[in-house]
Amino acid sequence: MHDTTNLQDPAAPVELHGHAATTQALPKTWDGRLLFAIALAFSVFQIATAAHLVDLPSQMVRAIHVGFVTVLVFPLLAVFSKRGGFAKAASWGIALLGAAVAFYQCFEYTELLIRAGDPLPRDVAVGVVALGVVFAAAWALMGPALPIITGLFLAYSLFGEYLPPPLDHRGYDFTQVIDHMAYGTEGIYGIPTFVSSTYIFLFILFGAFLERAGMIKLFNDVSLSFVGDKRGGAAKVAIISSGLMGTISGSGVANVVTTGQFTIPLMKKFGYRAAFAGGVEATASMGGQIMPPVMGAVAFIMAETLGVEYHEIVKAAIIPAILYFASAFWTVHLEAGKHGLLGLSKEELPSAKAAIIEQWYLILPLAALVWLLFSGYTPLFAGTVGLAFTTLLILGSSVALGLPSTVIRVIFWVGLGLVAAAFFQFGIGVVLAALAGLIAVNAFSRGGRETLVTCRDALAEGARTALPVATACALVGIIIGTMTLTGAANTFGQFIVSVGDKSLFLSLLLTMVTCLVLGMGIPTIPNYIITSSIAGPALLELGVPLIVSHMFVFYFGILADLTPPVALACFAAAPIARESGLKIAIQAIKVAAAGFVIPFMGVYSPALMLQDGGAMAAVVGYPAAVAYVVVKTGLAIGLWGAAVIGFLAVRLSVAERLVAAATAFMLLAALPLTDEIGFALSLIFAVWIWRRGRQVATRSVPGAA
After folding, report:
1. Of 529, 553, 503, which Cα lies nearest the Cα of 670?
2. Nearest to 233 by CA among 274, 283, 272
3. 444 torsion bin: left (phi>0), alpha (psi -120 to 50), beta (else)
4. In the chain, what are the helix, strand and coil shares in percent, each to the nearest 5?
């Protein structure tokens, strides 16, 4: 059988900077081992606080969280750089500054509370250091985009009083701005850092443990079995596999560098251009951030922000997420048809049934997580339980392999299941005792020791994977702090509303551009926090339903990672595809083209997000309104895909592509008679293409397809 598990090109160059440095194996040097230990301590600290084994004030947890991040970032990047000893020494020096800031926040915790609003000179000095270290960490790890955007907001806090009305504010002195941004819960230790130090970190660890346990292989094997033999099957495997990974992962870029190691070489091997292969992977991986249940942890933040139940967010997200992946699937199908790219033979493919039988237990923690979330438990509780259950399964599987008979193994698993269930009655102590017992048993066998090493590595890997998100969250807190200090969000919102009074479409277009600009180079969570706080209220005032307005800005924040010039997900795919990140971004926009349509459709037809169906629902009923808008959106993205790729059964001429695009726009416009015109043009276009296809088949020209 053909081995499809390791298709990475050994000659591919590796970029050991930025996001890539958080995914590489650390060298066996003194600094590599020290960084590994710090990352391990970071994860242990976060688990201890999440499980309330250590109870500290929230402000201390946030300060220590940011402290760990700044201690890790600079030496980690230095380890993989080619620079000399001075650069490495400087990186450790900055790391010590980050640690000193965290220590100061904890040591002076009570005193800082007492003198809040009236900082001492040393408080201001430490605050300046804190801001400088966070800015430097973000620049080093993610490039200049986010620090520059944040710097502009910080400059607005300091100098905005000199701008002309209505952009000006009343003015704030340097000490007040530093106190607001570097202390309390409004700046770098604000809500984004709170979210990073609780939900996000846990879900990244949850994904890291499942990946180490073999979830990627399970997803890949199932995907290959279902679509590997279909036309363009390699790209379809990438879409399904990356979409499934998105259900457990908190980072789209992390998805790219994990599943991409398998899917991009597979696509290239079977004929896809390197840029297109990278674009498919980037599109699918970022799409994982809009796929329930986790949604890059945004579902939990959105539910908390809007004051609605978690299941309401999932309900609104599910149809657009399916349409997003269906449109990507359709696009790669058309690309494969255009270039005659076939799939693997059945004999070369793994069996989905065999893969599920072998690793079915990996699905249990994900199922438990979803059940807990839909049962009303907090995301923090659900994430902690999901991580604990995953660890029990990994350690328990190793122990079960050494048991002498099937009967004993069944008894063991039933007992372990009862222990896990006892968690809900007796608390975390039961699970900790079970974990301690399993660790002790595993320590006495070779396979068990390997399993313990896997768990240890997953803890360190999760901490390093969280660094870009955590760094961005700390920096984004400054943007949120600027808006709470100056009221900048209200000024921008009023401008959007004034535009919307004349044209809702122009207002949406302006919001889209704002989200794409502000979302450049920013991970999913801080991305949503920024865009929703700036643009969400304005859309709500224009009559867009609450959840729909937040979904609109969330979607375009996600698509910012595919949009040049930053296109973070595309540049993460570049070293794997051995292609320019910019070329990959152009292809990603083609594959994700329908993703730019779906949010607009949701605004004009809220039934697409299972919200109030509007006038149509009142006439034909809610189910019929939902079915109608889903069919209309599906037809629009189908036509848009044909226009972008230039193929639909036959190669399309420029005129035909323009007609397909115009027809899709008619279905999107939601103006009087545009739907009727769109459906009529769709029918005419379909008949035209069918007749052309018949003519091509009759002529039987070699290579015509």
Report:
1. 503
2. 272
3. alpha
4. 80, 0, 20
> Residue ranges per domain, the chain?
18-197, 619-696
pLDDT band at residue 18 under the 50/70/90 scheme: low
pLDDT computed for residue 377 by the predictor: 74
pTM of the entire predicted model = 0.72
pLDDT tier, 468 (very low <50, low <70, confident <90, very high otherwise): confident
| Least confident residue range of 183-192, 408-417, 512-521 | 512-521
Q: What is the pLDDT of residues 374-397, one digit of tens each?
A: 777 777 777 788 888 888 888 888
Residue 293, preceding peptide bond in cis (omega within 30° of 0) = yes
Helix (H, G, I), strand (E, B) or coil at 650: strand
- pLDDT tens digits, 501-522: 667 788 888 888 877 776 666 6
Q: What is the mean pLDDT of residues 273-290?
A: 84
- CA atoms within a 13 Å half-sphere pointing along the CA-CB vector of 495: 12
- The one-character DSSP state at 168 is -
Contact 331, 587 (CB under 8 A): no
CA distance linking residue 382 with residue 462, whole number of Å: 18
Q: Is the dihedral of CA 336, 342, 348, 350 positive or negative?
A: positive
Convert 384-453 into a string of H (helix), E (strand) and C (coil): HHHHHHHHHHHHHHHHHHCCCCHHHHHHHHHHHHHHHHHHHHHCHHHHHHHHHHHHHHHCCCHHHHHHHH
2 alpha carbon, distance to own chain's centre: 32
Place of tokens 């040049």: 564
Asked if residue 122 lies in contact with residue 107, where contact means CB atoms within 8 angstroms, the answer is no
Beta-bridged to residue 648, according to DSSP, are: 650
d(CA 267, CA 234): 5
